[in-house]
Each structure stands twice: as structure tokens, then as C-alpha cells.
Amino acid sequence: MIVAIGKKTLALILVCVILAQICLLFAISYTSFPAQENLSTFTIVIDAGHGGVDSGVVGVNTNVKESDLNLLYAQCLGSMFANVGAEVVYTRKTQDGLYGLATKGFKRRDMQKRKAIIESCNPTLVVSVHMNKFALSSRQGPQVFFQKGDEKSGEFASKVQQSLNKFTQNNHSHLSGDFYVCRCADVPSIIVEFGFLSNPIEEEKLQQEKYMFDICNQTFFGIMTYLYSM
Ligand SMILES: [Zn+2]
Q1: N or C, which end of the chain is more exposed by having fewer CB within 10 Å?
Q2: Distance 128 CA to ligand 1 centre (A)
Q3: Nearest CA among 57, 49, 61, 56 for reference residue 204
Q4: How many CB atoms lie within 10 A of CB 38?
Q5: Ligand 1 being an ion, which residues bring their Cβ within 5 A of it?
Q6: SS3 label, residue 1
Q7: What is the pLDDT of residues 149-182, one digit of tens each?
Q8: Is residue 66 a contact partner of residue 56, using CB atoms and an 8 Å limit?
Q9: How far is the CA of 122 from the centre of ligand 1 (A)?
Q10: Ligand 1 centre and the CA of 196: distance in Å?
Q11: Where is 112: in which H helix or E strand?
Q12: pTM value?
């Protein structure tokens, strides 16, 4: 009898624990992932930097091309927004550049094509995906850039940088400069440099699928934090 009561009590406790976990899960998902309809009018441009004959920087040990990694990271990040019902526009979906023939002026044509894509979709936010390089191989960690003097983009860059710093335990600041891709539309626009291909340890990490997913996820949360503060 005592055993029977014990079993019932145990079952009751178990049910309570499961219910509590379900409530907690709902609470987390409600605060972290907004309802799909809230994001249906949200369009994000994910721009994979470089492509084609313009490979960007290359890995110090493996010669991995920045342009190839940018494409993978752009798709990974973009799919996270598609999963919550946002409209995702990619400037490029293949390893090719956007310049047509690789003749004189291809870089200018490539950037103009990106601008045309950004302008045509009237986005809420623009995120350009890149990998970094520095003379000192010890330099590491993601860094977020924005157009100097653009306050909204500065706030956007700050939120994403803070989110990435939590993940990588860095205290990098978001940085300003003059960037064509950040001037294509009058909406908050940033460049995320996910890491340094000049750092052998980071070069290896950046090519790991789990690391890519985790750092894109952290970027996603940073962007969502900004979106809900707009
Ligand atoms: Zn680049």
C-alpha cells in the first residue's frame, strides 16, 4: 500500500515536473521566438561577400576561400530567419560573383548589382557576411562594422557585437568606417566579419559546421534583439 501510494505520488510529481518544463519551454519560446505573423513583414538581406574570381581573403593554413565560407555562413544565418517566417533575400546563392564577365570594372559591377538587389526588395535590415584578416595572427573573434555617422546602424552593430562577444568571450567593440554595402539602402546595415582566417586556430574553427551554426545562432539572437528594440 505504501508502495502504491509512493508510486502515485511519484507519478504526480513527474507530471508536475513535465508540466512545469512545458510551461518554461513556452515562456522561453514566446520571448525568444516571436510569432510567425510578427515577422511576415520583416525582410532581411543577407549578403555573402565576394564570389567568383574575387575570393576575398584566404585561410593561412588551408587556403580556404573567404567567398566560399561567406556563402555557407550566409545560408546558415538566412535559414534561421526563414524558419521564423521572415522574408530572406540573398544577394548571391552560388559561388559565382555578380559581375557577369570578369572583365575590367568587375568589382564595381558586382557591388552595383548587390545594391540593385538591396534596393529592389525594400528591406528592414541588411547584413553583409565576411571573414577577416590581420597582420598579427593572434588577432581573433568576430567584429561588426557599420557606416560612420549612421546612428541606427551603430545601434544595430552594437547589439550584434554584444551578442557575439558573449559567445566568444571577447570584448571587441563595433567599429565604423566607409562601406559601400552599408550605404545601399537607408535602413540599418552592418557587416559581420565572423572571424580571422589569418589566425590558424580560428581558421580551423570557422570551417567546423557546429561552430558555424552556433555563431550564426548568436548573430541571429543579436539581430532579433535589435529588431525588437527598433
Ligand atoms: Zn570580405
Answers
A1: N
A2: 9
A3: 61
A4: 14
A5: 49, 56, 130
A6: coil
A7: 999 999 999 999 999 999 999 999 999 999 999 9
A8: yes
A9: 24
A10: 11
A11: helix 106-120
A12: 0.84
Task: Give me ligand 1 centre to Cα 29, in Å.
Answer: 34
Which residue type does 67 have? S
Residues present in the chain in total: 230
Cell of 183: 550605404
CB atoms within 10 A of CB 109: 17
Q: What is the model's pLDDT at position 52?
A: 95
Question: Cα(7) to centroid of ligand 1, in Å?
Answer: 62
Cell of 15: 507530471
The kind and range of the H/E element at 184 are none
Residue 56 CA, ligand 1 centroid: distance in Å: 5
Output the pLDDT for position 7.
55
The β-bridge relationship of strands 87-90 and 43-48 is parallel
User: Which 3-state string (H, E, C) describes 77-107?
Assistant: HHHHHHHCCCEEEECCCCCCCCCCCCCCCHH
